[in-house]
Amino acid sequence: MSRPARVLVLCEYPSLHGGERSLLAMLDQPVFRTLDIHLAGPPGALATAVQRRGWTYLPVSWHDPGGRRWPLERCRFHLDQLISRVRPALVHANSLAMSRLSGPVVQSRGIPSLGHLRDILRVNRRVRSDLSAHSRLLAVSQATRHWYVSAGLDPG
After folding, report:
1. Homologous superfamily of 6-150
2. 114-128: per-residue pLDDT in tens?
3. Model's pTM, two decimal places?
């Protein structure tokens, strides 16, 4: 019998706000129970909700002990190590920041990936390049999609 596909979901926040609640509602659907879901993010309310559902939650931080965000390359190094341990068939980045962080890492490893675009923020050429490294980008609305296409991301 084959093992279910392993999916690594990258979460930016430890909280249970809109993006996190939307993610949990989606993953609660029966079709997702056929996958081996691993979520990674900061410890907090999200971790508790995930563990109550019986899923794996991997505590990670992208900040130093003082709360300052690590430089992007250091975050990518740690993400690459996490991916080496988890060995996912698919990576889902659940926010713009996680999409930017993970895009080049998953592309260099040849892992299919999804970047989730929830926020409408200005992006520069480097951010567009990082986001475009994903296999697919998911926008939460037509307005969000239009914003990023207008900013230069591929409409496909």
Report:
1. Glycogen Phosphorylase B; (3.40.50.2000)
2. 999 999 999 999 999
3. 0.93
